[in-house]
Each structure stands twice: as C-alpha cells, then as structure tokens.
Amino acid sequence: MLRTLKKYKAPYLFILPFFILFFVFQLIPTIWTVYISLTDWKGIGSPEFCGFGNYQKMAVDDMFWESLGNTVVYWISGLILIICCALLIACLLNSRYLRKDSARAFFKTATFLPNICAAIAMGLIFRMLFDENVGLVNEVVSLAGGPKVPWLTSTTFSKIPVIILNVWRYTPWFTMILLSGLLNISKDYYEAATVDGANAAQQFWFITLPSLKNILFFCSVTLTVDMWKLFNESYILPGPGTSNSSLFQYMYESGFNVFNMGYASAIGVVLILILMVISVIQFAVRRRQGEL
Amino acid sequence: MKKKIAILLAATLTATSLAACSGSNDNAPAATTASAGGQGGAADQGNAGGGEQPAASGTVYPAGTLTVYAMGNPQYRQQYFETWLENHRDIAPDVKIEFVQTEGTADIREKITMTALSGATDDLPDAAMLDPVTIMDLAKAGLLKDETEYLTPLLDKMVDNATKDATIDGKIYALPDSVRPQVLFYNKEIFDRYEIDPEMMSTMEGYIEAGRQLKEKSNGEVYLSYIDPTSKTWRYWGRRGLMPSAGAKIWDDNGEVVIGNDEGTKKALGAIDTMNNEGLLMKTTIMEPALYDAINNQKVATFLIGAFWDEFMRQNCEATKGQWRVMSAPEFEGVGKAGAPVSQYMGIIEKGDNPYSELFRMMWYDFTFDIEAKEEWVNSMEAQNAPYSNPVSIEMLEDPFWKEPSEYYGGMSFREMEGKCLSNGADNLAVTPQDAEADEIISAELEKYVAGNQSMEDAIANMDKNLKAKIGKADVIQ
User: Are B203 and B308 in the same domain?
Assistant: First the structure.
C-alpha cells in the first residue's frame, strides 16, 4: 500500500484536494446528520439522544407523507415532461429545416435563457402569473370563458404551477445535453435509412433513440437527483399547508422554521436512502440490459 | 523536472483546499479590538443594576459597528439611533450602528444559531429584535444577557406586562420594545353609506352581524374583512387574534394537547368558519397588491388585527385616507376580553466580551424614555409614512403628543386609541418551546380549510390528532 502510494504519489496528490473537500463537506456532514437524526436538538444547546424517536414521529406525520407524495409527483412528471420537451426541442434545433447557422445559434440561446434566470425571481413572476385574482393565466382562462382557477390556493391545483415552472427551468439544460448527443450521431445512419425508405418517425425510433440511450440514462439519473432535491420552485409558490411542498422543502422548514434539527436530519437521512435505492435500481436495470 | 513541478502543483492545490477549509483569521484583529474595548466592560460593571440611564462619564466606546438584527423596516429605527450616536460622539466617537434587515424572528434565530454553532462569536450581532419563543430558546442556550438587574428598577415606569413574555424563571432576558394591542380598523365611510352602526362591532356576534348587513346592503360588493390562504390566517386571525380573545387553549396547564375539545377554540375558529361560509371574507393574501386595491376601492370594510396594520394602511391605502377609524377588538360573549397584545423585545446578545452592551442599553433607555427625542422621531416617521409604535413608558404615554389627532383616521387619535385598546386585553396563548412546530401543524390544517378541502370541525380534529402525534406534550413555561 505504502509502496503503491510512494510510486504513484503524483496522481494521488492530484486527486487529494477532491477527497479532502469530499470528506470535509460531504462525508463528515452526512455522518453527523445520521447522528443528529437520532437526537432531539433545536440547533442550540446540546443534542439529546432520543433513539429512533424522530423516525417514529415521521411515520405518523401526515405532512411528511404528503411532501413525500408531492416529491414523487414532481419526480415522475419531471422525468416524463422534461425529457420529452428537451428531446423535442433538441431534435428541432438539430433539424435540417433550421438551415442558417445564425438562426440555429439564436434559437439555442433563446432556448437556454430560462436556465440562467434566477430561480427565485422566476418563482416570483410565476406567482404573479398564477395569482387567482389578478394573474395573467386566469385572465386568459376568463377570456376563453372559463372560471377563475385557484392555482395556488387550492390543494387540487397547487402542484401544477410548480410542475410548469420546474419543466420550464430544467428543460433547457437537458436540451443542450441531448443536443450534444444528437450531434454525435453519424449522418451516415440517417442517409442509409433514407435510402432504405425509412420515414422520419422510423428514423427517430430506430436510430435517434437507441443512439441516445446512454445520454438519456444520464439525464434520468441527474433529473432524479434534481427532482428529489427540488426546493426553490415549491418554496416560492406555496400552496395550502403542505399540498405542494417538496420533501426537501419540508426538511428545510423543519430545520430552519421550526428549528427541529433532529427531525430535519431524519428527513435528510430518509432522502439519502431513497436516492440511493433509486440510483441502485437505475444502475441495476442498465446493467441487466448490458448497457453498462 | 516535470514530475517535480506536477508534485509541487498538487501540493499547492492541496494546501489551498486546506486553507480554504480552515476558516479565516480575519476576526483576530476584531477580537483584539473588542478586548481593547474593555472600557465598555468596565461601564457594564459600573452601571449594573442602576435602573437609570447608564452613566457614561469617562467611558469611551471602541471604534466599530454595533450590529442589530431586526425586521419590518429597521432602517427607520436606525435613523433614531444614528442621531443619538451623533449627539454622543464624546463617548462613542467612532461607533457606527447597523440595523440588518431580516425576514422575521425565524430568520434572526437561524442566523444567530448558525453563527453561534460555527463558533464565530465575533460575528454575532450585538443585539436583536426578538419574540417570546426565540427569547426562550436563546436564553436557554445562554445567548442572551440577563437584564433582570438592569430592568427591575424600571418596571414601574413601563406599561403593564411590558417584560412578561421575556421573563423566564423570574429572570428578564430582553428589553421591551413595544406592546401593541389587537384593534378593529373600520372604514367609517362604508358604514355611513350603508347606515350600519359600528358600535355593534363591540361583540363578536355584532361583528359578524355587521358583515351580514354589509353584504346584503352592498349586494355582495363589500366584504367584512379578508381571509388569507397562507399561514397568515393562523397568525393574525388565530394565534394573535380570536384564539386569545375567545379564551382558547392549545395545551392545558400540564402541556397536554386540548385543542380538539377546547370550547374557546371552537368559539374562535367557529367565528372564522361562520364568516367564511357566509361569504363575508374576501379570499386574498394580506400585504399584497390585490388586497390593497380592494381596500382602496372600498371593498373591504374592517380589519381585526394588530395595531401594526396601521403602517401598512398608511403606506398602501392613500385613497382611503381619512375614512378609517379604530376601536377596541370585539369581545366574545362570556369571555369579555378584547384580543391579546403582541410584545416585541430587543435582546442583547451574550457573546463574551461584547463592548457595546452598555452602549445599546443607553440607546434603548433614550428611545424608551426620552420624550422629546422620541416625539421628534415619530413626527419624522409620520412624514415618511414609516412605522412606529406606542412607547412602553407610562410617562411618555401621558404626554399630550400621544393623544394628537391622526389625519389618516379622520381626526381620531390613533396613538391614543392604541393605548386605550391595551386596557381590556386578553392573555396570550401559553408560550412553549414547541410553538413554532405547533403553529406549522395548526396552520397547515387551517390552510386546507381555507382551500375548501375540509370542514372546520375536521380541521380542528386534525390539528388535535397531528399535535398529539408529532409533539405529544409541550413544556408550558408561562
């Protein structure tokens, strides 16, 4: 071991900064979080050990389960809508109909803009758009002859603005990733398919999608983590109670509004476990498919 | 050679990472400065227990910034303290004061807690604006200075219960800043137009009846008041409003959850339910443009809320200037109390050698008891449509200045009414360290009720169930 370290000290030294940061800012806080989750601690004073009390509390906490359910909704809807929208836009940007380079550059920039806007600022604008009384969305609904929809004041609709904001913000990033994948697919495949008489849908289904498999997998893993960490969107567009809160938001509020650090840590531990299980399943499925 | 350079580079990167993680030593000179300010500390000892304006002779406070965490619009308070410092350059020649704007007491607590946890005590503020729950937690953690000795001789000079919510186990942990009552704001012009006698609103039944008449006579154009779909319904209608005046309880004296069977709760939340079901309340978020528009268009006739609402009205509802009046909050039959006052405090942070503790007490004393300076500042606040509250000093309240008519209230003296409305105040709900969590649970159920997802009976039952499941028993201290 020591001989190996001595022999390869240069590469080990190069990766050392990452591991120092990883240990200091990720591993140690994670272990600390697990410890705090077993205590009753309000952020000041000494933590008092309470065993699995916080986890037992979680089991009977309606707000926790509602936030967990909401997060699953955001995750599933995000995976489907964001990847579909990103793929569609990436295909359009890569389309042969967009011939001029200047036009392509313009649309690429325009597509990416939502991603660089500050999430909180966008959230505030969406809050105005979805306001029940004076919001633009309800104005349009009214013009179309419909009744005013209580977007953010009803438990039924309050998740919809969050999902829309979510899709609007995340789609550009994944569009760019998918577009880079599309640009790497050899044109030869499409030319051969055209010669064989394949139409656009068949080319998409039999060439584009299989070629993007690994990138789509990467997107789904990244999106899964992002969606389970969702915070800004639901925090800035609050609905009644926890009707549209994400689990991450509930964890934050338990920690910094209620100052129940032990309980918030327990939620954090559950989040880590959920993400680990999902990631393991995703990787296992890919391995079984022989793709990894 | 290349290998050596590579190793050197890697070593530099590692060292940089370690340095970045190790924290800065920038505080060291500040700490030295603070220690050098031992004169402040000396002043501390010299004036302890004085109960008067602390003597400043011979004491010169060290150069630096006195930091105060506050909420609302603290820049206006800063104006007062800056003027005070300008007038006292002999004792604080190079001291500046900075009021840091925060979102609220939770934000203040978060900032103080995180800073204390990190061990960077020099970065803690010198003082902070606090509510009773935060005082309780910070005092328990030893982060607040004990003000008992300093305040005890001053208690007779202040309004009743000025220090009540800052007293824990007989010790006072913060300086009283304001005690503001619940009041009933009503638009006299609307009541005159529909020939409704505002006096009928002295009881809760009369208040609801006034709403019914307003709705009927205006063909549903005018609402009695508002209901907020967010947590503010619990905060303003519930915890600070109808719950105390109905004599409601969340916990019994032993800390057991009783909200589900409590008659007071049924009265308080039942009144909200009646008003909401009968369409007397406009569903809109408070402190947002939609509500201000409705007020300016004379579509909302009353606000049963804390006296702090005055500043929001003056700032945002200029179109109704002169139309509003204030009266005591309605009383529930059989209880006879008119809403509980809301107290706010300034706590001096215990951070070791705090060179400005005594200086801040001097400023607070002046702000609380200097009649002339306070009146000048209040005039300036009125001119700027800025917030101010009635003083806690009895002597100051007796000054004719605090009975002067207010233009915004059609010649009625808002300041005088604010003082009068304190007279029949209900007791606040018991303060417990579990309040923040309880508020979250209760508010969530109330929000679902406002959203139309459950009846008020179900909401109360769910509050009871979830409080029992999540908190169980509270530590009732007061």
Answer: yes
Measured between beta carbons, which residues in chain A are less than 8 angstroms from residue B11?
A: 13
**Position B35 in a domain:** no
Is B72 among the domain residues? yes
pLDDT tens digits for range B290-317: 899 999 999 999 999 999 999 899 989 9
Domain count, chain B: 2
Cβ–Cβ < 8 Å for B78, B98: yes
Contact assignment for A240 to B462 by CB distance below 8 Å: no
User: Three-state SS for B476?
Assistant: coil
CATH code for the domain in which residue B129 is found: 3.40.190.10
Show residues of chain A in contact with B466, CB under 8 Å: 61-63
Q: Could you tell me if B457 lies within 8 Å of chain A, comparing CB atoms?
A: no
Q: What is the mean pLDDT of chain B?
A: 87
Range of the domain at A23: 1-27
**Phi and psi (nearest 5°) for B314?**
-60, -35
The boundaries of the domain holding residue B150 are 40-45+54-173+343-397
Per-residue pLDDT tens digits for B142-192: 999 999 999 999 999 998 889 988 999 899 999 999 999 999 999 999 999
Please name the amino acid found at residue B235: R
d(CA B98, CA B80) in angstroms, rounded, equals: 12
Based on the fold, state whether residues A70 and A19 are members of the same structural domain: no
Residues B303, B329: Cα–Cα separation, whole Å: 10
Select the residue of B17, B443, B448 nearest A21 (Cβ to Cβ).
Answer: B17
Residues B369 and B337 in one domain: no
Q: Tell me the pLDDT tens digit for each residue of A86-109.
A: 999 999 998 877 767 788 888 888
Q: Is the pTM of this model over 0.90?
A: no
